[in-house]
């Protein structure tokens, strides 16, 4: 007869003790002190409905992505200096089916029109808004990303997958014009765009500051000619004419919405007028950590705005080891229906602990954006897909913060329209943590939908339950159904 394996026996005993201790805790419940010290912070106050882009896609003839209980997720489908050579639209075309299957509801493309730097430009120095890679201009026919035909094919394929497509609109400035005598400056300026190859949206010095309407607007960028949106010619070609930029992009190119670049450079009424006349989802890049300023811009532009306040708080919280900072004010807390959250973009990549940051934005309110390289190259795609699924299926309702200190953060989504919501537990420490928390569920069996914890506890009659979280990780709990 073999001797018993002492290590195996001890491990089995410890396992039994671990689960029985947890079972005993469940029977005993949280202490009166724990309950007394609990301070639930109800962050948002609304009816609980999810973020909407204005195009619900609640049905699908292709069996692909449809609007989910938690709303949608956006993919920033590029990064700075994607490979040149005119193949990017084709590359994205190979991705959209998998993205749709993962639950991505929209893609944000880089500026699609011909720019001054021709085949090497990322598009932020626009010359001809109607040259999508189909005119020989600025040293190339195709843009850095490809041809018009390839762009149209990408948009069509994305729509087949029930994915919306957002265009990056650079309206503050232009580049690549010809020299002309400028009567407003008394100098020669590169403001003659009457010879653009498309023949559409001709511009002269009269359409740029300084001009007959004034010396400047809210901001200029990089020394480029600064479009004067107050001039009738600019307004007509950007958003009023049926064959102008906005309506052509929407009705002919079939874009569903807009990301507006550098909106600090012009007044919010510009985006408001665009949205009124053109329609579609819109989000502005107002690069500012001041939540008051973000809210002011979003309200006056009648647009969503990137939540830079959230971005900088996450950076300080996750990398500075102070998760209590997640109690601070953010745009999604002010107005979750106008907040687009993100962890990284093509301009800024400061957050080191990205997986925890994605766990945060994909369980909280707002419209979360995933960065291409984070998803396709740098992070664990299976974990990202799991968080996308959790966002779409479980992240519903208003938000309440249950606990926050340097190392731990626990929040509750309170559910909506029969969906139970969730509890997210983020742990920035190097050891397992566990806590009693108040839920919205009575006598309900719950589980961690990330699979990071194997516990399957049952909430008590008073809705309290004990949950756990792995080191430097997260767990997301909801009713086991």
What does this structure look like?
Helix content is 28%, strand content 20%. With 481 residues, the protein is α/β, with parallel strands linked by helices. The protein has a domain at 68-395: Glycosidases (TIM Barrel). The strands form six sheets. The chain has an eight-stranded parallel β-barrel with strand order 2-3-6-11-12-13-14-15, surrounded by four helices. The chain has a six-stranded antiparallel beta sheet with strand order 1-16-17-18-22-20, covered by helices on one side. The longest helix has 23 residues, at 6-28. It starts with 5 loop residues before the first helix and ends with a strand. Residues 1-21 and 57-63 have low confidence and may be disordered.
- Largest sheet features: 8 strands, parallel, barrel
Q: Helices and strands: which structural class?
A: alpha/beta
Which descriptor suits the 3D outline? elongated
CATH topology of the domain at 68-395: TIM Barrel
Question: What is the CATH top level name of the domain at 68-395?
Answer: Alpha Beta
The N- and C-terminal alpha carbons lie at a distance of 46 Å
Given the structure, what is the number of helices? 14
Oligomer: single chain
Q: How many beta-strand runs?
A: 22
Mean pLDDT equals: 93
Topology:
Elements: H1 6-28, H2 32-37, E1 41-42, E2 74-76, H3 88-93, H4 96-102, E3 106-108, E4 114-115, E5 126-128, H5 148-160, E6 164-169, E7 178-182, E8 187-192, E9 208-209, E10 226-227, H6 232-240, H7 245-251, E11 257-260, H8 269-278, E12 281-284, H9 291-301, E13 304-306, H10 308-319, H11 331-334, E14 339-342, H12 354-361, E15 367-371, H13 372-378, H14 381-394, E16 399-404, E17 408-413, E18 422-427, E19 433-438, E20 446-448, E21 464-469, E22 473-479
Parallel strand pairs: 2-3, 2-15, 3-6, 6-11, 11-12, 12-13, 13-14, 14-15
Antiparallel strand pairs: 1-16, 4-5, 7-8, 9-10, 16-17, 17-18, 18-22, 19-21, 20-22
Cofactor: Ca(2+)
Domain Glycosyl hydrolase family 13 catalytic: 72-388
InterPro entries: A-amylase_thermo (IPR013776), Alpha-amylase_C_pro (IPR015237), Alpha_amylase (IPR006046), GH (IPR017853), GH13_cat_dom (IPR006047), Glyco_hydro_b (IPR013780)
